[in-house]
Amino acid sequence: MTKPIHHTNVSRRALLAGLAGTAALLALPAPLLARIAEPNPVFRHGIASGDPDASSVILWTRVTTDGPAQGTWELSDTPDFARIRQSGGFVTDASRDHTVKVLAGDLPAGETFFYRFRLGNAVSPVGQARTLPEGRLDRLGIALASCSNYAFGFFNAYDAIARDPAIDFVLHTGDYIYEYGGEDGWGEKIARTIGRSHEPAHEIVSLSDYRTRHAQYKTDAGSRAMHARHTLLACWDDHESANNPWVRGAQNHQPATEGDWDARRAASVQAYFEWMPVREPEHTAHPDRSRAQFWRAYSFGDLALLHTLETRHTARAKQIEYLDYAPSIVDAASAERFREEVLGAPDRPLLSPELEEDLEAALAGSVRAGQPWRLIGSPMVVARLNVPDVVKLGLVPDPMPRLAAARSPEELAKLGADPAVSLGWRGLWNLADYTDAWTGYPWARERFYDLSRRAGASDLIVLSGDSHSFWLNNLVDDSNRPAGIEFGTAGISSPGDFIESGFGPQTSVALDRAYAEHIPEVVWTDNMHQGYVRVELGRSTGKASFVAVNTVLSPRYATKVIHEAKFARSGGQVRLT
């Protein structure tokens, strides 16, 4: 069904309908509502909560001021702050980019609270925060979000999440910001037409750059609404630092012009921890760990476990580049050797040993506790996405005559950058769609499945991002044993790969259909929309709703559920029904 059109400007109407979303807030005095709705030059980046456990939650804001600042924060059971449950002071300065993070503790489990910040006479917007529930829980609603690129459009899906009454928490699986910039930066052509060019106006490399980019993203009205309304559960992917990083570098990092990779990565991680409502290591169960070891286990009463993954900075092996091997792939036999000996080579990890240990223990604990659901927050799609023969299916031209005519590595590289040539060639040999995703790391994926099976958890629900497409997948291991199901989300604003590659609407839809019909693990996919996935869990059944926004080019939008998938537990497995 299509929901009414909304406007994401922060107005009194938006606060009433979306930012708060509770009957209690509707009862706030009109003068207070009006004051919250006014533009706030001190708290212009809004407020946020995140990274909760059963007795505490992180509260976040940023103050716009010169020099050091001292202020206060308040937590209440009601949005009118008639009785303050907790309060305290904060101090911030330029060393942390004037951001503020408070760990509000000693809270009851499974409750909703209201919070705000004060600096002098300035008062922040009011936000809602939740602690994790304990004991019996009959229902849980999670919004799955990923890939919010400021240049490509307004974060309307964030605004829709803020207004969605079925959502309890938001899981963001990465690409919360993008590093690109400049006249040739990805998305800049669209950005100039809608007034959303990236700041700074170049690719971000330094700490100051990353801070400025995070600040820009948090001025988006949809982002501010979502953060004010819902507590965030987050993991990162690649663009929080640079495209396709691995432990010793990144595809989008050139040391000759952009300096030392370790320094750039450290700057990106520092800015992320400053600007996001996430716990510092000292407030976790492993205070001796580094910020880079950023994964979490969230337990929702007796109903579900959610474990997020870190796949970029603590273990990842370098991605395989097809261009390095293309000349040697000449027939089905050589393609199979490439899949087994290169892509499938052992000891090409994605997960660190510490993460694997934590994950196996959490999954085993969930099984012992009798929780019916085990969710994995994955930055990337896990399912095998080997490209079908799109040439034989008549969707793209045969690339082989053009490739055979190439007379130099430079010509071959230029052809490899042509989306139709690249897709056709991968389809000819049934190769992985994208070697940066799990399908480019089959050894690591099988290790992940083995770990889950040892824990008694071959019933995973994987919630994934990165691909800019909606996905509904059945997961199996190398022996074709069920491993779980997967829901993947489209971008908040990032465009689908087929459309962005220039295939056009008709061909892009046909490619979606070909993937669903010819890739065994894919049940349904869509790269034509932006939006989010709403996952609702009951005691033995659940439903995933793929919610699309009709535009990101204007802050006026409508939402529509374009697909629904029901699932249930049966015989120790989770299955689509």
Widest sheet, order of strands: 6-3-2-12-11-10-22-23-25-26
* Strand composition percent: 15-25%
Number of helices: 17
Q: Specify the biggest β-sheet.
A: 10 strands, mixed
Distance between the termini: 21 Å
Could you name the ranges where pLDDT drops below 50 across 5 or more consecutive residues?
A: 1-37
Helix-and-strand structural type: alpha+beta
The backbone outline, from C-alpha atoms, is globular
Radius of gyration: 23 Å
Number of E-type strands:
26
Average pLDDT, all residues: 93
Helix content: 25-40%
Describe the structure.
Helix content is 27%, strand content 24%. The chain starts with 5 loop residues before the first strand and ends with a strand. A hairpin with a 5-residue loop joins β19 and β20. The strands form 5 sheets. Strands 6-3-2-12-11-10-22-23-25-26 form a 10-stranded mixed sheet. The protein is an alpha+beta fold and 577 residues long.
